[in-house]
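queue> holo job accepted (guanosine-5'-triphosphate)
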Amino acid sequence: MENLISLVNKLQRACTALGDHGEGSTLPTLWDSLPVIAVVGGQSSGKSSVLESVVGKDFLPRGSGISQGAPWFCNYTELMVKENTQNSCTLRIKDSQILVTSLLIYSFVALPNCIILAISPANQDLATSDAIKISREVDPKGERTFGVLTKIDLMDKGTYAVDILEGRSYRLPHPWIGVVNRSQQDINKNVDMIAARLREREYFASTPQYKHLTDRMGSEHLAKILSKHLENVIKSRIPGLQSLITKTTAELETELHCLGKPIAADAGVRLLPVVYLRIGTRFYNLTICMHVFSYKSQDMHFMGKLYTIMEICRMFDGIYKEHLDGARPGGEKIYYIFDNQFPVALKRLQFEKHLSMENVKKLVTQADGYQPHLIAPEQGYRRLIESCLVSIRGPAEATIDAVHGILKELVHKSIKETHELKQFPTLRVEVSNAAFKSLDRMRDESKKNTLKLVDMECDYLTVDFFRKLPQDVEKGGNATHSIFDRYTDSYLKRIGTNVLAYVDMLFPVQTKQLSKLLDEDPEVMDRRANLAKRLELYRSAQAEIDAVEWAK
Ligand SMILES: Nc1nc2c(ncn2[C@@H]2O[C@H](COP(=O)(O)OP(=O)(O)OP(=O)(O)O)[C@@H](O)[C@H]2O)c(=O)[nH]1
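queue> job finished
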């Protein structure tokens, strides 16, 4: 029995790990593979009494008509798994009153994993036994049927059940087992199970007709036989389950591999995913990392403490990452800054005003100096573009500050949500100081690099854009303007329009591109998360089932 309990417990854990409760699983469910016992018999045949004496406990409600003569069903696995080593036991009964129709009863006992405990009272004709009738219909070979003969003590004087018990009256592959349960009088007198079993044993041993069968009779023997049978059935299913789990695990691994790593993991950044800020034509990443502690020591005790500290930091890390990844709230505010705040700030720059005719004229003439341009005001264009781009510095810096503010807020939140940190106030302060220090340092570096990027954008103009501009010559016009009409309104206006088009080309689309680039297909993301979770479950189920194998 102990073996069976530990075996079923392990399988139960495997089932629980897989979330396998018989529904919606891709595995032929483990529950389905585990045997279930149905105690079947006519009214008052002794079903409850047998069930209780097999378990060795009084647990069923008493009173006539409780089950209206229909079978009680007992999910043996549920019975076993809840039994701990102290022998406390919880049993879930599927009452026949719930299974109201005989159709349901048949569909239940017809299941190949259902073991039928066919209860027939010895004081009635076996030919009229309901249990044998049902068993014969759903299990014609009797392979799943255990014939149990009750009320042997109530047989007419001088009659004995030897022919049945020795399998001559009705042959079953599993030998018949006779039991003597407590009578109604015994129950009324509260005769306990131990005393009842003792008396049962004495009954068989002291009745000359049954003496030779004593070792094969009684409730205790029935419990043993049943346990052994269950153990064998369960074990016979294990190799199949194992190969199924191995196969499914391999399939999940392959599929996960095909999906690739999630963005954050690919970026390889421990604390924060990379935040891309597009300034000009390039992407710039604000990679913010944190190195909280670095200790060196040969001391094992110290190593233990260090391990604890690192574990707590890892938990903090995890929570912080969850905020950014979306598993916890907060990270989406960063996206809002790039998607909303930054473009709005750029719009406010109003390049059109900046490119007023006076300003264009001023910058173009200044750039020309004492040698007016001949074909196009090359230097003038460059100055105008530079003056526009330089004004982006302000919004870019403000964006970094805003992201920085959110990241700090998330550090605060994560610190609060890391329960383990509550226990160690000093560590808590250290972790938040280190995090803020890192964030400050990264903010400064990000600003420096972002501004450098703006400068780069000013220094190098996308030549293609100007090459594609419609040329006066190609239009059949005069490419060169007379020195006198060079600064006319229409000419200056065209320069302003070209510069604006160039600057617009750099910015309006940026956040869309950003979103597109970072926007992994949500279905793929969901699928990946789902697969990873299932894979983890299958691995723990595998470990549980391996342990069963090992314990064989
Ligand atoms: N003397 C004696 N009485 C028994 C034996 N088995 C059962 N009884 C008595 O028979 C009566 C019916 O037994 P139960 O175990 O309740 O039978 P059941 O099949 O569960 O009954 P229902 O649920 O009402 O169909 C009870 O009073 C039991 O004490 C037995 O082997 N010997």
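queue> The radius of gyration is 41 Å.
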